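Good day; I would like, with your permission, to put a structural problem before you. What I wish to show you is a protein chain and, alongside it, a tokenised description of its three-dimensional fold. Thank you for your consideration; the sequence and its tokens are set out here:
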Amino acid sequence: MIKELPADARPREKLLARGPQSLSDAELLAILIRTGTPRDSALRVAERLLLKYGESGLTGLGGVSARELSRIKGIGAVKAVTIVAALELGKRLAASSRPLRPVIKSPVDVANLMMERLRYEVREHFVVVMLSTKNHVLGAPVVSVGSLNASLVDPKEVFRQALEYSAAAVVLVHNHPSGDPSPSPEDIALTKRLVQGGQILEITVLDHLIIGDGKYVSLKEKGII
């Protein structure tokens, strides 16, 4: 049990004495979990939680719902909500450090804008980054949420949103929950279809980025657009 650890090794006391940077992911989670089970400490529950969602640690937790977490022994509904809320605050903090209306000059700019938003999702999210004539970001709405390995995108919805934003150009973005951003044949076919649709409406499709776990692929850089 955590109470049996030396005072300077307990997560709360360690944070107060040395700062949050000195704690491991499991120790930070243990503070959120607060109490364990009759058999396991909060720290042990936290370690099991990280192990369950893969070797990537907190990355695997980023897209897990509170409902799913609540089913884990030692977590429950209240602790699950606390963990999900803390992770969401982290995502929002990362997003808030970016300019309100960033300018897109390259695929790297799009990746920096969307990586933290999409890399943790467990389902495919298809986002359209709306751009002004000077490539300022006007918005980045989700136009489709798919299954674990597929996103069903209606081109009419993509361009309806673009027209509502009065976008001069768009960048298509979606994630691969597997973490591998390699484009599938379906990704390439959809991209070409949307490029053609944009030409008819005079809305330029500048690029299509596929987001993986900390990495991305630009179909423009691949020569597909």
Observations:
- The two ends are 57 Å apart (CA to CA).
